[in-house]
Structure formats: structure tokens, C-alpha cells
Amino acid sequence: MAQILAPNFIVNYINEAARSKVTLQPPRLLVMAFLGGVYIALGALLALVVAGGATTLAAQNPGLDKLLFGAVFPVGFIAVVLTGADLFTSNCATQMVPLYRRQVRLTEVLRVWSVSYAGNLVGALFAAGVFAYMTGLLDASHPWSPFVLSLAEHKVHSPFHVVFVKGILANMLVCVAAWQGYSAKDTLGRMVGIWAPVMAFVALGMEHSIANLFFVPAAMLAGADISLSQFVLNNLIPATLGNIVGGALLIGLPYAWLYSETDGKVENPTDIDLP
To answer: Highest taxon of the source (predicted)?
Structure first.
């Protein structure tokens, strides 16, 4: 019988992890977030090469190509969780638990979010410039080059409200992935728990602000006709706001309320058995 951790135990675990993150010195959190941004970017780069290079599949069965794109993308998210790196979008939900329990202040939560976002930004841009551009993977000669440009241009030309709503669903699924990852007691179980929701949001074409910090700058380096203001105003701001709503208000706070501090203590953290 395989075992997973009970939901109330997971919320307590997240509470303690979030409180510990608040106590980190900014340089340590910044480095953790830098690594998180790099890992997300590498998963995104892999997805671009694999799915973008499957030109025949995309022409004949675009649904399967989207599934392929989503299937390989979670490599970066899995690396973030398993190696202890940091991701802004996950923090949107996890920091809500100690905030709801009045164990941290709102200013501390905002500081964690700000440092995390900054580190993710630097990491994603570093990966775009060094691992994607300087390696030649963004050269126009590659079969996935049109896919890179098309993806980014679609992101910056979508209406504000559409990107915002897509950002909400994206981070709901990302935070569910983090929750499911914490639920497993073994590495394979954690990987599967993380993979499925992340695959879903990517295949559906939702908007993840940190992933977009790689996708759009990478396309700009590849020659996309996208200005910095277009990227920030049309995509990054609505995606980030949507991510905050999806993670903090629709995942973090509901679970913090459902499993309050008095209800969240369990004697046996593995009281759910699965076949």
C-alpha cells in the first residue's frame, strides 16, 4: 500500500516552510530564486525545442503537439521543488498560510514575493541570454524558430483580461502541483504529483509570469518584433496579477481556512492509504 500525507499535515508543513522562508536573509532567498528562474527557463527551452521542432505533428495534430509541449515543460518545476529552489508563483499560495494564522506580517510576505520575483527574473533572463541565445538554439535555421516567435507574439497581443484570467488558472494549477508534490513520501510520487497539473496548464496555453520571463525575452533575442513596453504592459503585468489571485486567493487562503491551526495537527501524517 502506497501512502501519501494527509491534506491537513501538508498545510502545516507548508506553514512551517513558509515561516522559515520569511526568516531567510535576502541574499540567500535571491540565490534560491535565481536558481528557480533558471530551472523554469530550462524546462521552457526544452519544451520549445521538442514541441516546436515537431512541425509535422503540429500541422497534422495540433492537440498532440500541445500535449507534447506540456509534457516536457514540467522538468523545471520538478527541479525547483526537489532541489529546494524558490519560485514566486508558489510563494503566492504558501505564504498565505502563516499570514492567515497571523504568524507573519503582510510586509514580510510582500518582501518574500518581491525578492523571489527579482531572483526568478534574473535567472530566467540569464537562461534566455546564455543557455538559449549564446548556444545558438534560437538561430533562425532551427525548425522550432517560428514556433518561438509565434508563441511570444501571441502572448503580447492577447487582451489584458484574457492574460489575467489565464494567469489565474495557471497559478492555481502550479500551486496544486506544489501541494501534490508535498503530499508524496517518495521522489517518484512527488514528480508525478507535480507533473500532471503543470502539464495541464502548459498544454492549455495558460500564462505563467516566470515562464514568460523566459519565453518572451528569448523570442526577442531571436528577432521577434516585440518591444519591452509591449511585453511588460500587455503580458507580464496581467499575468503576474493573475498569478497572485490564482495562488493567493484561490489556493493559499482557502486551504489555510479549511485546515486552520487547531484543525491542522495530526498524530499520523500518513493516514491516507492508496492502493
So the answer is: Bacteria
Count helices and strands in the chain by DSSP H and E runs:
15, 2
What pLDDT, on the 0 to 100 scale, is given for residue 3? 61
Question: What's the burial of 181, exposed, middle or buried (CB within 10 Å: 0-12/13-18/19+)?
Answer: buried
For the chain, domain boundaries: 2-265
Give DSSP secondary structure letters for 63-127: HHHHHHHHHHTTHHHHHHHHHT---HHHHHHHTHHHHHTTSS-HHHHHHHHHHHHHHHHHHHHHI
Amino acid (1-letter code) at residue 190: R
What is the chain's length? 275
Flag whether pLDDT at 269 surpasses 60: no
Res. 45: pLDDT tops 80: yes
Say how far apart CA 36 and CA 208 lie, in whole Å. Answer: 14
pTM of the shown model: 0.93
Going by CATH, does the domain composed of 2-265 fall within 1.20.1080.10? yes
